[in-house]
Design goal:
3 helices, 3 strands, about 25% strand, globular
Length: about 80
């Protein structure tokens, strides 16, 4: 559920669509209100799993802040 929450927060605030592939799992793509970052893929479920496995060093808040910084600075 943490991956879903993180992904939906990103999608609702910054645009994007959910995608799935057998190789990569569930991800967000076409990030940006106009699909500005069509080639970008974000893996919120992977990040949530890393947080549980590695602890605080994989903070979801830090991940989100970094993502926002990158998006605002046009990657």
């Amino acid at each position: 559920s943490f991956g879903s929450y993180l992904g939906e927060t990103i999608r609702r605030a910054h645009g994007g669509d959910w995608g799935f592939s057998k190789e990569e799992g569930i991800y967000l793509h076409q990030i940006g209100r106009n699909g500005d970052y069509k080639g970008a893929k974000i893996f919120p479920f992977t990040q949530a799993r890393k947080r549980f496995e590695k602890g605080e060093e994989e903070s979801l808040a830090s991940y989100y802040k970094t993502l926002v910084y990158v998006l605002e600075n046009k990657m």
